[in-house]
Structure formats: C-alpha cells, structure tokens
Amino acid sequence: MAENPFIPFSRPWIDDTEIEAVSQVLESKWISTGARVREFERAFAEYLGVKHAIAVSSCTAALHLSLVVSKIGINDEVITTPYTFTATAEAIRYVGAKPVFVDINPDTLNIDVSKIEQAITPNTKAIMPVHIAGLPCDMDSLKDICTKHDLLLLDDAAHAIPTIYKGDYIGGIGDLSSFSFYANKNLTTGEGGMITTNNDSLAQPLRTMRLHGIDKDAWSRQSRRSIWRYDITTEGYKYNMTDIQAAMGLCQLMKLTKQHERRSNFSQIYQQELEKIPQISTPFVPDNTIQHAWHLYIIQLNQVDRDQFVESMREENIECSVHYIPLHLFDFYQKQYGYKVGDFPYAEEVFERVVSLPLHPGMTESDVNIVFETIKKVISK
Ligand SMILES: Cc1ncc(COP(=O)(O)O)c(C=O)c1O
C-alpha cells in the first residue's frame, strides 16, 4: 500500500498577501509599533464588536497585563483550570497571586462552573477561564458568579477566535479577554496577542502599560513632531506589537471567516466518521447558539493506549498532539503550590485519553479522509 503523505498537526495559513503586506512594512522603514498596529486594533475590535482592542506581544503578555490593570497581586487568588497551557497560570504567578485550580467538566474540557464557588475565599479576585479548543465556557454562569462575589472575569481566549457565545463574540463578554496569535493559532502573527474589553477605564491604562508606561508611543511622538519629550505615567512593560506583526494580522483577519469555515467543515467530517468508532469519543458539539472556533479537534480514546496511538499515527506519517498535561502534575506547580496527583481527577483522567488530530485550514478533505482512515487502521490493530 502507498505511504500516506505527511500530514502535519498544524500549519499557519500564509500566502502572498501576508508576504506582500510584511514587505511593504519593511520597505516603509517604520517596523515597530505604528500605523499598522492601530489599524489592526481597530479592525480586530470591529470584527468582534468590542469597544477596545489593545495589541501586545503575546497572549501571555495580555494575561499578565489584564491582571496588573485589575490590581491583582501578592496574596490574591485567581481561579482557573488545571487543563490549560502553562501560560495561563504563569501569568497569575507573574503578579505574585496564586492560581487556584478547579477541575474540568470531562465532556467540554472547560472549567466546571458548578465547582467554582467552593474554591472562592476572601482572597479570590478573579476567574480566568479558558475556552479550550475554541469551545466557549459557560459565560452566563461565570458572569453570575463574578457579580455575586465581586470578581473580575479575565478570560484566556487564546483558542477562541472566532468563538460566539449566545450571539456575542468571545472578547466582549468578560471584563478583559486575552487572545493569542502564536504560530499555530487560528489567526497568527508569528508571535502576538490582543486584549479586548468594553471597559474604557481599563483600556486606557493598558495602552500605556504595554509600552513602558510611556504616555505617547514613538509613532504618536513623531507624528506630532515632538520627537523626544514624553512622560511615564504608569508602571510599564515591554509588551508592544510591531507593525510587521500587525500587517500580517490584518491579512489573517481578512481570512478569518474563511479559515474558520474550513476548520468547521473538517471537524464536521471528523465528527461524522469518528462517531462510528466505539473506541473514540468525539468532542462535545454545542447547540446553534454557540460557534466553536475549532482551534483544536480533541478526541478521547476508550480502551486504547494513547501514547501508542500517537506513535502509530506518526509511523503512518500523521502528526498528532496532546492537549494538555494538567498543570498540577508538573513538578513546578507541585513544589510551588502544593498540588498533587489526584487533586483534579477529571483533568487527569481526560489527559490519559486525549489526542488532538491534525486540523488547519491548509488541509484538504482528502487529508481529512486519510487521517480518519488511518485512525481506523491503527485502532483495528
Ligand atoms: C490556553 C492558552 N493560553 C495562553 C497561551 C499563550 O499564548 P502566547 O504564546 O501567545 O503567549 C496559549 C498558547 O498556546 C494557550 O494555548
């Protein structure tokens, strides 16, 4: 039998449009934060229907600044999920606060909102939910809990573009939302991130904080012909986005709807085919009040060794991945916060079974067919 072509787990969807846009920025000689960043922020905010979008250098930076501007610090606690990438909890540590993990719902893989109130203490200041794979968390319940306990809702929206929850895009529902434009994300600028909010009083300091706390960035100073004079009005960080990144982001934003259609279509094919296999549980598909971003397509294996499965797929030229090793299983989180094996049973159980299948807009339906046919072959072995 002929060998499968190599099917990567993820690839950015880049064509001549991005190359041309980035070249134009390079030729302009204004390559750091400038007009393209402003344009990208405006276009991003408009796409999501949110008042403010503040471009930054990564989602990790976005999460960090969200906590800083919310005045969360030492001895405070932020409730989040252990089933996420380390950046979520890492940002909480940056401000000296403690990430307080709450177990997940094993079907949605998102934080189990019914368990959150038990974890609230007088030190709790915020909830940082993660919309895993692009499936929105239960935002109504999260908002109710936040209102009841006077907490901020700072969602990690790294996977959640374009995710819709009951008619609104993720990005305008929480107090502050943080997006990632890392290389494998639905919209990429190589590295990059965005904070979105409808709150004017949080947006203004965020714009200053992301560039050293300087009241005017270099672009504003040169355009006002007062090159050198500036003030430092707040604490600052070096978290600005460059025009090179923003030029790419603008092109990616134009393609966002199209790339999402392709991801949704491929996910639907996976769903139809894999539902027939008893050894596989397919991802939770929400009702039509919700739009899944399909950043990841995560299956759960039943009675099949996950590591062996990933290895066998690799031998068949198909690259899979695993999201996520729960954070409380890592040495650092155990030493730093005293978490231990057994603390979050659903996150642990799910972790043993999950596999993320190849999913990216550059795939073809034929690639998707090869993936599920190979899954059938590997499982039957
Ligand atoms: C859930 C989640 N949060 C945060 C991040 C951090 O994003 P960035 O690499 O843009 O800092 C990632 C990155 O993959 C992520 O998956």
Structure description:
By secondary structure, the protein is α/β, with parallel strands linked by helices. It folds into two domains: 16-254, Type I PLP-dependent aspartate aminotransferase-like (Major domain) (Aspartate Aminotransferase, domain 2, 3-Layer(aba) Sandwich), CATH 3.40.640.10; 256-380, Aspartate Aminotransferase, domain 1 (Alpha-Beta Complex), CATH 3.90.1150.10. 40% of the residues lie in helices and 13% in strands. The chain contains 14 helices and 13 strands. The strands form three sheets. The protein has a seven-stranded mixed beta sheet with strand order 1-9-8-5-4-2-3, sandwiched between helices. Strands 7-6-11 form a three-stranded antiparallel beta sheet, with no helix packed on it. It is globular. The model has no long low-confidence stretch (mean pLDDT 96). The chain binds pyridoxal-5'-phosphate. Residues 58-60, 84-85, 87-88, 130, 156, 158-159, 180, 182, 193 line the site of pyridoxal-5'-phosphate.
List keywords for this structure.
381 residues, Aspartate Aminotransferase, domain 2, Aspartate Aminotransferase, domain 1, 7-stranded mixed beta sheet, 3-stranded antiparallel beta sheet, 13 strands, binds pyridoxal-5'-phosphate
Report the bound ligands by name, code or SMILES. pyridoxal-5'-phosphate
Approximate strand percentage:
5-15%
What is the CATH architecture term of the largest domain?
Answer: 3-Layer(aba) Sandwich
CATH-assigned homologous superfamily of the largest domain: Type I PLP-dependent aspartate aminotransferase-like (Major domain)
Provide the gyration radius in Å: 21 Å
CATH fold naming of the largest domain: Aspartate Aminotransferase, domain 2
Low-confidence stretches: none
Strand order of the largest sheet: 1-9-8-5-4-2-3
